[in-house]
Amino acid sequence: MSRHDSQRRFQKMPEVIPAPGNTALVVIDMQYLDAHPDFGLARKARDEGQFEILNHLFARLPSVILNIQRVQHACRKAGIEVIFIKIQSYTLDGRDLGPSYKAKGLQCPPGSKEAQILEELQPVGDEIVIPKLSTNAFNSSAIDAVLRYMGITKLLVCGVNTNYCVETFIRDAYDLGYEVVLLEDCCAAVVEEHHRVTCEEADEIFCKVRSADQMLTAIEQNKSVGKHPG
Length: 230
Hints:
230 residues, 39% helix, alpha/beta, Rossmann fold, 9 helices
Protein backbone atom coordinates (compact mmCIF):
# COMPACT_ATOMS: atom_id res chain seq x y z
CA MET A 1 0.00 0.00 0.00
CA SER A 2 1.41 3.37 -1.00
CA ARG A 3 1.55 6.38 1.26
CA HIS A 4 -1.24 8.06 -0.70
CA ASP A 5 -3.44 4.93 -0.53
CA SER A 6 -2.87 4.80 3.23
CA GLN A 7 -3.80 8.45 3.70
CA ARG A 8 -7.02 8.04 1.73
CA ARG A 9 -8.26 5.80 4.53
CA PHE A 10 -8.53 8.87 6.75
CA GLN A 11 -10.59 12.03 6.48
CA LYS A 12 -8.52 15.01 5.36
CA MET A 13 -7.43 17.18 8.27
CA PRO A 14 -8.90 20.70 8.41
CA GLU A 15 -6.69 23.68 7.68
CA VAL A 16 -5.14 25.26 10.75
CA ILE A 17 -6.22 28.89 10.90
CA PRO A 18 -3.58 30.88 12.84
CA ALA A 19 -4.90 33.61 15.08
CA PRO A 20 -3.62 35.72 17.98
CA GLY A 21 -4.56 34.24 21.33
CA ASN A 22 -4.81 30.58 20.31
CA THR A 23 -1.75 30.01 18.10
CA ALA A 24 1.98 29.76 18.80
CA LEU A 25 5.03 29.42 16.60
CA VAL A 26 7.23 26.81 18.29
CA VAL A 27 10.92 26.95 17.36
CA ILE A 28 12.70 23.71 18.31
CA ASP A 29 16.43 23.36 19.09
CA MET A 30 17.62 26.25 16.92
CA GLN A 31 20.58 26.78 19.22
CA TYR A 32 24.36 26.77 19.06
CA LEU A 33 24.52 23.16 20.28
CA ASP A 34 23.16 21.62 17.10
CA ALA A 35 22.41 24.38 14.59
CA HIS A 36 25.71 26.22 14.20
CA PRO A 37 28.76 24.88 12.32
CA ASP A 38 31.30 26.26 14.81
CA PHE A 39 29.92 25.04 18.12
CA GLY A 40 28.56 22.00 19.93
CA LEU A 41 27.97 18.87 17.91
CA ALA A 42 29.42 20.34 14.70
CA ARG A 43 32.66 21.32 16.41
CA LYS A 44 32.90 17.85 17.93
CA ALA A 45 32.32 16.25 14.52
CA ARG A 46 34.98 18.47 12.96
CA ASP A 47 37.48 17.60 15.69
CA GLU A 48 36.83 13.92 15.01
CA GLY A 49 37.21 14.33 11.24
CA GLN A 50 33.53 13.57 10.57
CA PHE A 51 32.07 16.97 9.70
CA GLU A 52 31.11 15.77 6.21
CA ILE A 53 28.25 13.87 7.87
CA LEU A 54 26.68 17.25 8.63
CA ASN A 55 27.32 18.87 5.23
CA HIS A 56 23.70 18.69 4.10
CA LEU A 57 22.31 20.02 7.38
CA PHE A 58 24.50 23.10 7.35
CA ALA A 59 23.99 23.68 3.65
CA ARG A 60 20.23 23.80 4.25
CA LEU A 61 20.22 25.78 7.50
CA PRO A 62 20.79 29.29 6.03
CA SER A 63 17.55 29.10 4.04
CA VAL A 64 15.77 27.51 7.02
CA ILE A 65 16.90 30.35 9.30
CA LEU A 66 15.73 32.93 6.76
CA ASN A 67 12.32 31.28 6.51
CA ILE A 68 11.95 31.06 10.28
CA GLN A 69 12.84 34.75 10.54
CA ARG A 70 10.07 35.58 8.07
CA VAL A 71 7.50 33.58 10.00
CA GLN A 72 8.70 35.01 13.32
CA HIS A 73 8.26 38.53 11.98
CA ALA A 74 4.75 37.80 10.71
CA CYS A 75 3.72 36.13 13.98
CA ARG A 76 5.04 38.99 16.10
CA LYS A 77 3.29 41.53 13.91
CA ALA A 78 0.01 39.59 14.15
CA GLY A 79 0.24 39.04 17.92
CA ILE A 80 0.89 35.30 17.64
CA GLU A 81 3.12 33.88 20.38
CA VAL A 82 6.68 32.85 19.51
CA ILE A 83 7.97 30.13 21.85
CA PHE A 84 11.40 28.49 21.88
CA ILE A 85 12.28 24.99 23.05
CA LYS A 86 15.93 24.17 23.58
CA ILE A 87 18.14 21.39 24.88
CA GLN A 88 19.52 22.45 28.25
CA SER A 89 20.07 20.86 31.63
CA TYR A 90 19.24 22.68 34.85
CA THR A 91 22.50 21.50 36.40
CA LEU A 92 26.03 22.31 35.32
CA ASP A 93 27.07 18.66 35.08
CA GLY A 94 23.92 17.50 33.28
CA ARG A 95 22.94 14.96 35.90
CA ASP A 96 19.26 15.83 35.36
CA LEU A 97 19.31 15.03 31.63
CA GLY A 98 17.29 12.13 30.27
CA PRO A 99 19.09 8.83 29.66
CA SER A 100 19.20 9.26 25.88
CA TYR A 101 20.85 12.67 26.09
CA LYS A 102 23.34 11.43 28.68
CA ALA A 103 24.23 8.46 26.49
CA LYS A 104 24.80 10.73 23.48
CA GLY A 105 26.84 13.28 25.42
CA LEU A 106 24.40 16.10 24.74
CA GLN A 107 25.64 18.19 27.62
CA CYS A 108 24.32 21.71 27.41
CA PRO A 109 24.49 23.47 30.79
CA PRO A 110 22.80 26.77 31.62
CA GLY A 111 24.89 29.77 30.65
CA SER A 112 26.83 27.91 27.95
CA LYS A 113 27.13 29.13 24.38
CA GLU A 114 25.55 25.88 23.19
CA ALA A 115 22.42 26.60 25.25
CA GLN A 116 21.82 29.94 23.52
CA ILE A 117 19.32 30.39 20.70
CA LEU A 118 21.02 31.35 17.43
CA GLU A 119 21.60 35.09 17.22
CA GLU A 120 19.53 35.39 14.04
CA LEU A 121 16.47 33.91 15.78
CA GLN A 122 16.80 35.15 19.35
CA PRO A 123 13.69 35.84 21.46
CA VAL A 124 12.29 39.34 21.55
CA GLY A 125 10.98 40.91 24.75
CA ASP A 126 9.46 38.34 27.10
CA GLU A 127 9.05 35.53 24.57
CA ILE A 128 9.17 32.20 26.35
CA VAL A 129 12.21 29.90 26.18
CA ILE A 130 11.68 26.41 27.62
CA PRO A 131 14.55 24.01 28.38
CA LYS A 132 13.95 20.30 27.77
CA LEU A 133 15.86 17.35 29.15
CA SER A 134 15.19 14.78 26.43
CA THR A 135 14.06 14.40 22.82
CA ASN A 136 10.47 14.46 24.01
CA ALA A 137 9.67 18.04 25.03
CA PHE A 138 6.21 17.12 26.30
CA ASN A 139 7.71 14.58 28.72
CA SER A 140 10.71 16.60 29.90
CA SER A 141 9.59 20.22 29.98
CA ALA A 142 6.66 22.41 31.01
CA ILE A 143 5.60 23.09 27.41
CA ASP A 144 2.17 21.45 27.66
CA ALA A 145 1.22 23.34 30.81
CA VAL A 146 2.50 26.63 29.40
CA LEU A 147 0.52 26.23 26.18
CA ARG A 148 -2.69 25.26 27.99
CA TYR A 149 -2.42 28.07 30.55
CA MET A 150 -2.07 30.52 27.66
CA GLY A 151 -5.05 29.09 25.77
CA ILE A 152 -2.88 27.89 22.88
CA THR A 153 -4.52 25.16 20.80
CA LYS A 154 -2.74 25.59 17.44
CA LEU A 155 0.98 25.10 16.84
CA LEU A 156 3.19 26.13 13.94
CA VAL A 157 6.29 23.99 14.34
CA CYS A 158 9.82 24.44 12.96
CA GLY A 159 13.44 23.64 13.82
CA VAL A 160 15.85 20.71 13.86
CA ASN A 161 16.10 17.82 13.34
CA THR A 162 12.96 17.13 11.33
CA ASN A 163 13.00 13.38 11.91
CA TYR A 164 14.02 13.51 15.58
CA CYS A 165 12.89 16.21 18.00
CA VAL A 166 10.55 17.97 15.56
CA GLU A 167 8.70 14.80 14.59
CA THR A 168 8.46 13.65 18.19
CA PHE A 169 6.99 17.01 19.19
CA ILE A 170 4.43 16.94 16.37
CA ARG A 171 3.22 13.42 17.09
CA ASP A 172 2.84 14.13 20.82
CA ALA A 173 1.14 17.47 20.20
CA TYR A 174 -1.40 15.82 17.93
CA ASP A 175 -2.09 13.06 20.46
CA LEU A 176 -2.64 15.73 23.12
CA GLY A 177 -5.27 17.46 21.00
CA TYR A 178 -3.37 20.34 19.44
CA GLU A 179 -3.87 21.38 15.82
CA VAL A 180 -0.41 21.27 14.25
CA VAL A 181 1.33 22.64 11.18
CA LEU A 182 4.82 21.43 10.22
CA LEU A 183 6.59 24.24 8.37
CA GLU A 184 8.53 22.11 5.87
CA ASP A 185 11.03 24.69 4.67
CA CYS A 186 11.63 25.91 8.23
CA CYS A 187 13.07 22.51 9.24
CA ALA A 188 16.20 20.51 8.42
CA ALA A 189 17.71 17.08 8.98
CA VAL A 190 21.17 15.60 8.58
CA VAL A 191 19.91 13.50 5.65
CA GLU A 192 17.54 15.09 3.12
CA GLU A 193 15.69 11.84 2.55
CA HIS A 194 14.89 11.64 6.28
CA HIS A 195 13.46 15.15 6.15
CA ARG A 196 11.38 14.35 3.07
CA VAL A 197 10.00 11.07 4.39
CA THR A 198 9.10 12.61 7.76
CA CYS A 199 7.15 15.38 6.06
CA GLU A 200 5.35 12.90 3.80
CA GLU A 201 4.47 10.48 6.59
CA ALA A 202 3.26 13.17 9.01
CA ASP A 203 1.18 15.12 6.49
CA GLU A 204 -2.58 14.62 6.97
CA ILE A 205 -1.92 12.04 9.70
CA PHE A 206 -0.45 14.08 12.54
CA CYS A 207 -0.38 17.58 11.04
CA LYS A 208 -0.71 19.74 7.99
CA VAL A 209 2.59 20.25 6.16
CA ARG A 210 2.87 23.75 4.78
CA SER A 211 5.59 26.08 3.49
CA ALA A 212 6.62 29.37 5.06
CA ASP A 213 4.97 31.23 2.18
CA GLN A 214 1.70 29.38 2.69
CA MET A 215 1.73 30.16 6.40
CA LEU A 216 2.58 33.82 5.81
CA THR A 217 -0.46 34.05 3.56
CA ALA A 218 -2.65 32.38 6.18
CA ILE A 219 -1.39 34.70 8.93
CA GLU A 220 -2.01 37.76 6.76
CA GLN A 221 -5.51 36.61 5.91
CA ASN A 222 -6.40 35.91 9.54
CA LYS A 223 -4.45 38.47 11.53
CA SER A 224 -7.61 40.44 12.28
CA VAL A 225 -9.18 37.50 14.12
CA GLY A 226 -9.82 38.44 17.75
CA LYS A 227 -8.24 36.80 20.73
CA HIS A 228 -9.37 33.29 21.59
CA PRO A 229 -11.56 33.37 24.72
CA GLY A 230 -9.85 32.02 27.82
